[in-house]
Sequence to fold (221 residues):
Amino acid sequence: MLEAREVGLSFGQDTALVGASLAVREGESVAIKGPSGSGKSSLLHCLAGILRPSSGSVWFRGRRIDDLPDEESSELRRTAFGFVLQFGDLVPELTLVENVSLPLVFGGIRRREAEAQALNLLDTLSIADLARRRPAEVSGGQMQRTAIARALVHKPAVVFADEPTGALDSESAERVLVLLIDAVKRHGSSLVVVTHDSEVAASADRIVEVRDGMIGSATDG
Ligand SMILES: Nc1ncnc2c1ncn2[C@@H]1O[C@H](COP(=O)(O)OP(=O)(O)OP(=O)(O)O)[C@@H](O)[C@H]1O
Fold:
């Protein structure tokens, strides 16, 4: 459904990816593991159309997406993809339900309808009672649940999550990531998650190891 074919990526003299190939199936969750600087984020950014590969190609549902004009690429990200690139990047002035409804509002859905759908999702993540609070008025874990809801509300085909729990202690980090994996699965979306945490990676359907910009062994999660 989403596929990187022989993707290479260089930043000047630095090589981030070398012939990296990865295919993600419909509804599948894939954890990307590997040492610091190995190319995990680069791979995620290429798959998501945020970075253009220097060589190779990226395909989504049979269509090549790495060479789309910027406008079409942004449109694809807005409609088909959801992002949890960093927890805590909620809009501070907006309530939790307003934050979650943003992807729908940007997609042209009326505010009232968007908020109803957002509230529904907050409910499945057990924080509907906090919907009218602002991010500063809830805990870190509750902000993270809100970020998960926001990534899922427009029913994206793929959710991308890059080290979403870096700022948390390992126990909370693990809880949040498992919650993310479950929530994505319930929605039928695919998930590509970058994590250092082996236990979290084990909750994914598949683990992909990146080393020196190359994809190594893949195992079942
Ligand atoms: N904007 C950039 N400019 C120059 N080099 C970069 C840039 N981004 C990444 N790199 C290089 O590409 C390589 C892969 O980086 P990447 O961020 O993909 O690794 P990572 O596995 O996600 O690392 P970490 O776990 O530390 O976040 C590294 O050697 C890094 O120095």
The pocket of adenosine-5'-triphosphate is lined by residues 11, 14, 16, 34, 36-42 (CB under 6 Å). The first helix runs from residue 40 to 47. The first strand starts at residue 2 and ends at 11. The domain at 2-220 is CATH 3.40.50.300 (Rossmann fold).
